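Hello forum,

I keep getting stuck at the same step: I have a sequence, I want structure tokens, and every attempt I make locally crashes halfway through. Rather than fight my setup again tonight, could one of you with a working pipeline run this one for me? It's a single chain of 350 residues.
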Amino acid sequence: MSVFIITSLIILVFIIIYQIGRASEYASVLRGEEKVKLQTNRTIALVLVAFFILSMWGIYECNAMFMDRMLPKAACKTGENYDKMFIYTLAVTGAVFFATQFVLFWFCYKYQASEKRTTFFFAHSNKLEIIWTTIPAIAMAILVAIGLRNWFEVTAPAPADATIVEVVGKQFNWIIRYPGKDNELGKRDFRKINDANNILGMDWTDPHNMDDIISQNGELHVVVNKPVKLLICSRDVIHDVGLPHFRMKMDAVPGITTTMCFTPTITTAEMKQITKNPDFVYEIACDQLCGKGHYSMRGTVVVQTQEEYDKWLASQQTYYSLNNPAPGAPAGGEAKPEVKTDSVKAITMK
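Reply #2:
Ran it on my machine without issues. Output:
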């Protein structure tokens, strides 16, 4: 029934519009077609001016409404440069947008058809062609140069003292691997992947793997004011490591390792104070549609002081010890040292 009513209303609206159009034709015949055309042009010109003013007011109100919902200031130096680039781009494109829209609607009003004005056809001007081609080209070249500078900063070789962390995307969570005391990540082989006890396919013949630490809850721990290099890859489909609070993102591609380097400048505790939000967390988002569970693929970044990071790292067990306990040791526990049988016998005989 509701479909019938809606259809009937739509048909009725079209009939009314048609009748208004016919009435306008009859009115133009009675009052003179030229006079009606001029009045129509004047009305349309005024409507366009009103539309421009209302549109500009709407843009202002939308920005004012959502200003307090924007991301807080960037939490790393690279992110600050990206924010500056965004402001430069917004200033240039915004100025061009407002100028061209103002001129467009002003011309519609100022140069509307009238009895005192005849049509003037402006076919071509080499000078204008050069101006409106050269200026935008120069402006775009400058913006592109700024973007490339920031991109090279993100993908540049990491400093020697950078912390190396591996981030692996998997439907539908992030796996974070940290090097152990040797400060070197061990080798991986996708053929050795086993969800039961080797989720990254770590090669246990490589001694560097024995002290590596893996976080499966998608929690990335980094040290404030210390550079960190992320080794990014995927275990299945294309994902994307998005760090919105650091203004950075990088694709996680199966079979290819991509890198991203940044230096966090604000700890999580400090950002809670800045945002006045005790529940604030830095987010790791998947910025690439990766399947039906894409919405749930979310991790967090914990920015800590060096002391806090060292304490957290010391409390973690190596992935090898968690999945390969010694005989007699509880699952997930550290391997207990073996006791020699001869020593036991000697103690018993005494």
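Confidence is low (pLDDT under 50) at residues 328-350. If your local run keeps crashing, start a new thread with the error log.
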